[in-house]
Please model this.
Amino acid sequence: MDNANLRLIFVVTDLIAPLAVGYFLHQRQLVSGEAINKLIRFNVICIYTILSLLSFWVLPISWSLLIVPIFGFLLILVPGAIGSFCFARRFTSWLDRGAYVASAMLANIGTLGGVCAFILYAEEGFAYTQIIGTCQNILLVLVIFPMAQYCYMKQSHAIRKTNRLRTFCELFFSINQLSLIGMAAGLLLNASGIARPAVLGPVFQSLVHIAAWIAMLPVGFLIDFKQVHRYEEKVRSLTALRFLITPIIFGVLITLFVKDPVVKGTLFICAFCPTAINAVLTSRIYHLTTDLAVSSFVITTTAFLPVIFPILFFWLR
Model:
């Protein structure tokens, strides 16, 4: 059995298992919400910064690398535009519309896509997903947050009296963006010709598993199946957008413009990624319909893990 086949086991051990454990902890009330929030911040600030450094240190630098950020931005903007103009307008509530568009734009690329790309393409695939994840973080602040604010204002017919400029700066230049420094440091070491010590290879692989657990466990903690069932009908079009419309559009673009097989395969994985937990967080921050975003996350992730990714695995391998 080759390494890719062995890594396929990570779908269960690194993605499904922590979801189940998080859900169990919430149901038994064994962990507080505050502890979960601290766990999320530790993962974002510490683990992902180290992973970014180690993966970008060995990332092959070529012209193919330049096309990844372009697709990274398009993978957020195109589904968002389709979701906004074709589907979200049918909602009478602006709070529903905002949650829907956020769920359409934000895909679980950095965490779920990163593990799936690692399974198929090892550290190189993981690094490419982090570039796309960085593009998503930029648009989260510059596009998605203002969109969510606009929807809230339209619903409430009032402007919230807070210092938005200060909030914007705090979100964009916060310690949560520390992984960007890790990426830059890794690229600098890479471009300088400094070889990464061999001992750091096993360290990287171990951290991928730890990061996946820390990222997915809080998601399982947030799942409420009663609310998921309530909003099931409203997110059916999101499922089609995630697994049919977006992959068809980007399948054509990737085939036409991407030649490198690892970049191509990684982009295909990203095109199929389900709704991200950041859609839920955005909805909470701006008082949108959070349960709609949670339902989109749960339904699309439930379809992706046992069905979509195994198909992608055997096709792309």
About this structure: The chain has a mean pLDDT of 83. Residues 109-156 form the longest helix (48 residues).
